[in-house]
Amino acid sequence: MRIVLGVGGGIAAYKVASLLRLFTEAGHHVTVIPTEAATRFVGTATWEALSGNPVSNSVFDDVHQVNHVRLGHEADLVVIAPATADLLAKAATGQAGDLLTNTLLMAHGPVLFAPAMHTEMWQHPATRANVETLRARGAAVLEPASGRLTGSDSGPGRLPEPDAIFDAAMALVHGQTDFQLPLAGKTVTISAGGTREPLDPVRFLGNRSSGKQGVALAVAARNAGATVRLLAAHMEVPPPPGVEVVNVETALQLREAALAAAADSDVVIMSAAVADFRPAEISDTKIKKRDDTADPVITLVRNPDILQELVERRNQGVTGPATDGQLIVGFAAETGDQHGDVRAYAEAKLQRKGCDLLVVNHVGSDKVFGKDTNSVVILARSGSEPQEASGTKADVSAAIISRIGFELNQVSPRA
Q1: 309 three-state secondary structure
Q2: Which CATH number fits domain 187-408: 2.60.120.1440, 3.40.50.10300, 3.40.50.300, 1.10.8.60?
Q3: Is 53 an annotated catalytic residue?
Q4: Residues near 232 by beta carbon (within 8 Å), at least 6 away in sequence
Q5: In 10 A of CB 153, how many CB atoms?
Q6: pTM of the predicted model, to two decimals?
Q7: Which pLDDT value is given to residue 357?
């Protein structure tokens, strides 16, 4: 497939190099046309090296090939990323001041715009009108992702991740039009890792959670366009870029962080492995092992049920009007015993907790924790058919986020 990749003049241009590689590694022939401003961010040599083709933004280069006409005619797909406010305006008004805008006017195939700009620019009535004009003419315009922007601001306006743009482009070529980022404009809070409950300054009660599944969920939610807040307990993997990180250690700290984060979250995913119990007392000094003393007796007390409290506060309206329609997702790491199997325990937990979705996996010393693969069943309180997902933790996360996007577009199942 012959693709024209237009690059606008924004700081997000550096991320488009990864998009270009995705196109070329998939076997497509890509011609990159950067605007003059774009070359201030990423030079022509980079685009030529990654595409394997000469790069120009002038209608006067290779005039004998009539590039300002030929490129648009020959392209099976035109992708503009980042589509800045200026470039959207020029495309909407039919300007033809350089090679890229000429190519847009000549394009016969599908055209995809991936916007990136500051929030106020994206939300300005002029930009919104330009977007609607382009969509009315048949162009596809993605919603930008939300998150950290240039400087200290955050909000909608981030360039969607390269793999999300690639997927949208491939879907567009195959005639699919339902590829808009499913969580664009949503705020998603995700807990990850395992809590640790201190016994003394040295020891703690913990669990085997690595945080891999929670981090994969954060990546999937970010790629789906959401503003992501990661409540990170102990993790063996680093948090992904492009998400807000709140570090916690104990179940009580996680509770405090989760209740605060839920106040402005459209979705809360409690995937962390939270300790059910904590020591009733924490020694200020290391507990010594001495021959002349008896073995220590450690008394445990229950930790609060964070998931159930989040559901109760939402249902009672305590969290606030900003969370009307909030979706809450729980995780259940279960083992069967003589009293019941994994599914039976999970079904009971779903009814007891009252969350909207419960992601269930069968755990053990050689299963799930620390592994790169997972197999889960997604149960819904609405009573819909259980959904199975398996593969890498990235694959499982993509299925969970896709299900969440579906649920958000349904009538709320809550009483």
Answers
A1: helix
A2: 3.40.50.10300
A3: no
A4: 192, 193, 211, 214, 239, 245, 246, 247, 248
A5: 11
A6: 0.67
A7: 96
- Tokens, residue 388: 């199975």
For the chain, where do the domains classified as CATH 3.40.50.10300 start and end?
187-408
Q: Which part of the chain is CATH 3.40.50.1950? A: 2-173
Give the tens place of pLDDT for each residue, 37-52.
999 999 999 999 999 9
**Amino acid (one-letter) located at 313:** R
Is the pLDDT confidence value at 177 over 80? no
Joined together, the tokens standing for residue 170 give: 């491939």
Query: Which residue among the candidates 102, 207, 303, 361 is catalytic per the annotation?
Result: 207
Is the CATH number of domain 2-173 3.40.50.300?
A: no
Indicate whether 308 pLDDT > 60.
Answer: yes
Phi-psi region of 162 (alpha: psi -120 to 50; beta: other; left: phi over 0): alpha
Q: What is the mean pLDDT of residues 226-251?
A: 93
Per-residue pLDDT of 127-174, as tens digits, reads 999 999 999 888 999 988 877 777 767 677 889 889 889 988 998 888
CA distance 57 to 187: 38
